[in-house]
Amino acid sequence: MATKTYTVKTEMGNTWQVRAQVGSHQMIIDQPSAGDTGPNPLDTFLFALAGCVSTIAKMAAREQGVELRGINVEVNGELNPAGLAGKPSDDPVGFKHINISADIDADLDDAEKQAFLDLVCARCPVHDNLLRATSVSHQSR
Q1: Which residues fall within 8 angstroms of residue 66, CB to CB, at 6 or more apart?
Q2: pLDDT by residue for the chain (141 residues), tens digit each?
């Protein structure tokens, strides 16, 4: 199957606000202590994971003939802000641990719900990028 490239270009002026036109949507990331005109990058990251899990659940349910009446996903991440603040830390700069909890509204027993969530997470690209190191390069222009 051919690969698909996603591109997001952001711009930031003299405030903390980061703007991007993503498809037909204007997105804003900001800092609560600055303008608070949008979620911060870490909240946005967790939202992307929850959104991907939810979307893949809908796709998988349709494919398996499961009537998914709804899914509520809670994602929380444990972060030691020392590295983010430029202070020495043995912890990673990013999240030390991320937990996904899903309330699945479908006619499945607990074991079937867990198996369904396992399948969903195995197919979720955002989840996969967290489990396996993704090559990231950076350069200034």
Answers
A1: 60, 106, 107, 108, 116
A2: 899 999 999 999 999 999 999 999 999 999 998 999 999 999 999 999 999 999 999 999 999 999 999 999 999 999 988 988 899 988 889 999 999 999 999 999 999 999 999 999 999 999 999 999 899 999 999
